[in-house]
Write a structure and sequence with these properties.
This protein is an alpha/beta fold and 396 residues long. It has 15 helices and 15 strands. The protein has two domains: 165 residues, Rossmann fold (3-Layer(aba) Sandwich); 207 residues, 3-Layer(aba) Sandwich (Rossmann fold). Helix content is 37%, strand content 15%. It is elongated.
Length: 396
């Protein structure tokens, strides 16, 4: 059982909150380019400020590999957070050490401190016990509100938790668990999974775990061409993981025995090069030699939309084509719109982070589906049936 931040005694206490402020920064100015992850943490932070807690925020940013990289400092993130909270946010120039301890010891009730990038220390990713103890010494309460990192057993997500008297989850992590848990136990039927993206190998464990739970798997993106090749359908020059064709064939056979439908594209937007500004055409199966599939075609879009229309639960991860190029974004956009319409009719719709989350946000539909996961890797590992170390550390 994971306790909610609402159930913790935080008034007047030092509360260490692991947040996910791994946001894109402008290379020239260092300013935050997309503050969505900062905004996602605001409900938990505001709750703690309202309870007069002394809130200590900690995050990583980028991959500094255990070294101090000034371009990956969280100082500008702190400035953006201060604007969003409409209050001062103190910034610590490290996350451990005498200076940080002194700053934290002098905090007043309702104040917020943001620590410097955790990954400036190699001990963070190594889950070093001494480093974990140093982080834990800063706090009396631990709250994890960084779902994007709960699949990592690091010092700030696992190691320090056992050294802090109270522990629980913030609103963001609780929301993720609320929407992801039913996808592996007790989702309303009909239950569909839409999987796209480039590689079968990235989604194989998700496919295998969901096959026992869903009524149908709808496949798009480049990974569809490995499945089509496994069925002996010509895919031209489309991207195929040749070493995964046998695996794809076994999945198709297993699905048939389990009476789980796997729907594959049967028309395609194709070009002779994977880029914009080149001639494209619409083709059915097989794809001609020298051409490669870059998006699902209108007949496939219609077939997928019909299935989504009748679904009670839909999980979507991965674009239907090379959506970052406008010529190949139609399929992904149509699926996003279909999910929004299904949600309005009462279906539970969950978007599993990553590129599909970016696509639905770009279309302005993120608030039109039931839930958009903030942790692409974490949500996929959860749906693979794997234990998430950061969630496990909060139990009990």
């Amino acid at each position: 059982m994971v306790r909610s931040v609402e159930d913790l005694d935080v008034a007047g206490k030092r509360v260490f909150v692991r947040v996910d402020f791994n946001v894109p920064l402008d290379k020239k100015t260092g300013a935050v380019k997309d503050d969505a992850r900062i905004r996602a943490a605001l409900p938990t932070i505001r709750h703690l400020v309202g309870k007069k807690a002394k809130t200590i925020l900690a995050s990583h940013l980028g991959r500094p590999d255990g070294k101090v990289v000034p371009e990956m400092s969280l100082v500008n993130v702190g400035e953006r957070l201060s604007q969003l909270l409409n209050q001062d946010v103190l910034f610590a120039d490290d996350c451990v050490g005498d200076g940080v301890r002194k700053l934290v010891s002098q905090m007043k009730e309702g104040q917020v401190v943001l620590l410097e990038n955790l990954r400036f220390h190699p001990e963070e990713e190594k889950n070093d016990e001494d480093f974990s103890r140093k982080l834990a010494q800063l706090a009396e309460v631990y709250v994890d509100d960084a779902f994007g990192t709960v699949h990592r057993a690091h010092a700030s997500t696992v190691g320090m938790v056992k050294f802090v008297p109270q522990k629980g989850a913030g609103y963001l992590v609780l929301a993720e668990l609320k929407f992801l848990q039913p996808l592996i136990s007790g989702a309303k039927k009909p239950y569909l999974a839409l999987l796209g993206g480039a590689k079968v190998s990235d989604k194989i464990k998700v496919i295998e775990n969901l096959m026992a739970r869903v009524d149908a798997l709808l496949i798009g993106g480049a990974m569809a061409y490995t499945f089509l090749a496994a069925k002996g359908i010509g895919v031209g020059s489309s991207r195929v993981e040749k070493d995964k064709i046998d695996l794809a064939r076994r999945i198709l056979e297993k699905a048939e025995k389990s009476r789980v439908q796997i729907l594959l594209p049967h028309d395609h937007v194709v070009a002779q090069e994977p880029k914009g500004g080149v001639p494209t055409k619409m083709v059915g199966d097989p794809i001609p030699d020298g051409w490669l599939g870059l998006d699902i075609g209108p007949k496939t879009v219609e077939a997928y939309k019909q299935r989504i229309t009748s679904a009670a639960t839909v999980f979507w991860n991965g674009p239907m084509g090379m959506f970052e190029t406008p010529e190949y974004a139609t399929g992904t956009r149509a699926i996003a719109q279909a999910l929004a319409e299904a949600t309005a009719r009462g279906a539970m719709t969950v978007v599993g982070g990553g590129d599909s989350a970016a696509a639905i946000a770009e279309m302005g539909l993120a608030d039109k589906v039931s839930h958009v996961s903030t942790g692409g890797g974490a949500s996929l590992e959860f749906l693979e049936g794997r234990e998430l170390p950061g969630v496990k550390a909060l139990e009990g």
